[in-house]
Specification:
It is built from 17 helices and five strands. The protein is mainly alpha-helical. The radius of gyration is 24 Å and the shape is globular. The structure holds carboxymethyl coenzyme *A.
Length: about 425
């Protein structure tokens, strides 16, 4: 049979046949619209709740093979980047598509560092506007949305020079605002950025500096945090990235889109899972209680947080790297009973048919919270840290979307299942 890159569809309602091109392993959903019962029909729609089988864009940023457990940024395996690169260099790679030269990296880092300062009014807004026990992610979402009002030039999304400045601002200010969400919850004074420090060192400085004249980050923590930012930097069209692209597609300023992406990340099924893992490990309490907990999960009473992934049907490659790093971090901190529980939980789950048959493996969130905890970062800040790393990916994806000629305002269709042409009944006649 002659090989053709097309799909032939027979509509059994009409007996008509259609030949649809296959490009890059996909058909264009719009091609289905030509399949009609009558000339004035709308045409066939594809129904895909939760986008289980829909590509909403072309992208050259991140490649995932979920079956094999492969993750690459711009064609570079995550394992290589984790070993040889750092967050600043990798964010340049994600955003610009190529690795920087030494001079370009210096300039890139300098530009981002220069934009770590935030307007004093944002500080006041964060300090005066939120309750002392407000969740840091709520503060972060609100403050990022507030940033858009400080930078009206960010509305010029079609101006490449304006976009470049907004990129520096987003990457620079996210660490300052993130650290302030923590200081606010502790009732502590806000610490200004120290631009002599590295990106992750500066973040630790703004989180933890007290009265010492110069904060010196613990080098193991600084490196671990930098690696965690790198590992979280992008993950193609996940829920929050889709929010960044979808909201950004209305041509709103990128700070508003960033706030929307951060809000999506806040959910317990997405970035909130790292916090939920620690809650779960604490609830289990000791290694001997694991079998009972597994029983509950298998009975559908709860989920094994930090396990499972929409795309990975194999070990999440990021989880492998983080697990290795957890051992390094715990070598310089107190040993953790929660780590022992996590290791045993993973061991038991990976031998259990329930998890194996559903291809449920540890994901990025399973071990990351344990490392944050060892670094004395409170649980409520875990998702904020995820947001810092992911900002690089959100920015890269936003830029790709904004300059993609095929992208228009995102506007899914629906299958209407409600009533039609109802008659209005006055309130006194309703019962
Ligand atoms: N524990 C127990 N059972 C699970 C779990 C889990 N963590 N995840 C999925 N399952 C079961 C699920 O009940 C279903 O079983 P059945 O076929 O009997 O109904 C089957 O596995 C397929 O799951 P699904 O819910 O259809 O899978 P999904 O692709 O819609 O969900 C997920 C993916 C990540 C939301 C889900 O695995 C989950 O809720 N995991 C726990 C939360 C978590 O760790 N999230 C972090 C994800 S990675 C980082 C990020 O995205 O931010």
């Amino acid at each position: 049979m002659e090989r053709k890159d097309t799909l032939t569809i027979t509509d059994n309602r009409t007996g008509k046949q259609y030949e649809i091109p296959i490009e890059k392993g996909a058909i264009r959903a719009k091609e289905l619209r030509q399949i009609k019962m009558h000339d004035d029909d709308f045409g066939l729609l594809s129904y895909d709740p939760a986008f289980m089988n829909t590509a909403a864009c072309e992208s050259a940023i991140t490649y995932i093979d979920g079956e094999k457990g492969i993750l690459q940024y711009r064609g570079y395996p995550i394992e290589v980047l984790a070993e040889k690169s750092n967050f600043m260099e990798t964010s340049y790679l994600l955003i610009n598509g190529v690795f920087p030269t030494e001079r370009q990296l210096k300039k890139w880092t300098q530009n981002i560092t220069l934009h770590t300062m935030i307007h004093e009014k944002i500080k006041k807004f964060m300090d005066g506007g939120f309750l002392y026990d407000a969740h840091p992610m709520g503060i972060l979402v609100g403050s990022l949305a507030g940033l858009s009002t400080f930078y009206p030039d960010a509305k010029k999304v079609d101006d490449p020079d304006s976009r470049t400045i907004q990129v520096y601002r987003m990457l620079g200010k996210i660490i300052t605002i993130s650290a302030y969400t923590y200081r606010h919850s502790k009732g502590l004074f806000f610490v200004y950025p120290d631009n002599d420090l590295s990106y992750s060192g500066n973040f630790l400085n703004m989180m933890f500096k007290m009265t010492e004249p110069k904060y010196k980050p613990n080098p193991v923590f600084e490196k671990a945090l930098d690696l965690l930012f790198l590992l979280h930097a992008d993950h193609e069209q996940n829920c929050s990235t889709s929010a960044m692209r979808g909201v950004g597609s209305s041509r709103v300023d990128p700070f508003s889109a960033l706030a929307a992406a951060t809000a999506a990340l806040y959910g317990p099924l997405h970035g909130g899972a790292n916090e939920a893992v620690i809650k779960m490990l604490k609830e289990i309490g000791s290694v001997d209680k694991i079998p009972d907990y597994i029983k509950k999960v298998k009975a559908g009473e709860s989920k094994l947080m930090g396990f499972g992934h929409r795309i990975y049907k194999n070990y999440d490659p990021r989880a492998k790297i983080i697990k290795k790093m957890a051992h390094q971090v715990f070598a310089v901190t107190k040993k953790s009973t929660l780590l022992d529980i996590a290791l045993e939980l993973e061991r038991i789950a990976l031998q259990d048919d329930y998890f194996m048959s559903r291809k449920l493996y540890p994901n990025v969130d399973f071990y990351s919270g344990l490392i944050y905890r060892a670094m004395k970062i409170p649980q409520s800040m875990f998702t904020v840290l995820f947001a810092i790393g992911r900002t690089a990916g959100w920015v890269a994806q936003w830029l790709e979307m904004i300059t993609d000629k095929e992208q228009k305002i995102a506007r899914p269709r629906q299958l209407y299942t409600g009533q039609l042409n109802q008659v209005y009944v006055p309130i006194e006649k309703r019962f």
